[in-house]
Amino acid sequence: xxxxVLSPPVQAMSQNRxxxxxxxxxxxxxxxWNGQNKRSxxxxxxxxxxxxxxEDDDEEDxxxxxxxxxxxxxxxxxxxxxxxxYGGLIGLKGSTKRRIEEETRTDLYVPRQNExxxxxxxxxxxxxxxxxxxxQIRHLITSxxxxxxxTHFLAVALNSGEVQARYVELKKxxxxxxxxxxxxxxxxxxxxxxxxxxxxVLLDDDERQRALKELEDCRPLLADLKTPFExxxxxxxxxxxxxxxxxxxxxxxxxxxxxxxxxQCLAHFQSTGLCATDNNERESIKLHMTxxxxxxxxxxxxxxxxxxxxxxxxxxxxxDFGTAQCQAVHLCVLKSRGEDEFYKITxxxxx
Length: 351
Description:
Layout: H1 3-6, E1 10-12, E2 18-20, H2 30-33, H3 35-40, H4 55-58, E3 68-69, E4 75-80, H5 86-90, H6 95-104, E5 106-109, E6 119-124, H7 127-145, E7 152-157, H8 161-176, E8 194-200, H9 205-216, E9 229-238, E10 248-254, H10 256-270, H11 277-280, E11 288-293, H12 300-303, H13 310-316, E12 320-326, E13 328-333, E14 345-350
Antiparallel strand pairs: 1-2, 3-4, 4-6, 5-6, 7-8, 7-13, 9-10, 9-12, 10-11, 13-14
Helix pairs in contact: 6-7
């Protein structure tokens, strides 16, 4: 048994009092409790995050293939990170950056906003430490992305042919009915009607190109499906349960093969970390064509946050827009307008 237990050191106090000094061994957190003793000897060992993951898990992140070993035996990784994440990565007065460095025993270099490079540099003595920092940065970026507004969406254009013509007809009929609280500002422009298959947060050109690559990786999902997809657009529904207080009114879309592709495509993009929060929290895509949305109103705040759709559903609830074919899926920029009145298209998956 340790002599420190049988004959512990004592500390003399005033008035002839003597107290035993308890020794906290390293096996029981000595670095934490005896930190002052360590520092007095010139040793300052910081807390290191325990590695709960095996090396096999690191291999799932393609970035680990870019880890370089320098001639002196150190390891380095240049990790692309959009500048929009720099503030969150650095933290208040550098607190987040320091925490990651201390827990993973690494050094991080975050470029300044005016630098051309978008690469965060991770340096460490061991490869496993670089991997640990990489995981922490990935988790942090995922958390920060959830708080950001969507920038792009995956769309099927419906702004042509029979569906567009019938939509124009329906819009005219509704406006001619002069229903209370219904005006032209509520309607989706006929050049922009579409079906949304996914919503994403893409913060720089690298992420946009990556999203297009992920979209192309979805091409094998089409192998067992009949393309182009046949879509039947018929009937009106609302997003909420109260038709007297409606925010969005849409046309129903029926297309079994497109539904399969949309759900599989959703699952694929959920694994990329590029999805907006809404897409990460759902298991299936609701096929619909938005027709009226209270957000389109310029005076939305003055007109209230909803409109009364009861009479519209009563008169036009079974409206038939006809059929359309889906021959491509487009990655579009939200709140944009292209030359043909549709959204600006970043890239497409054609089939």
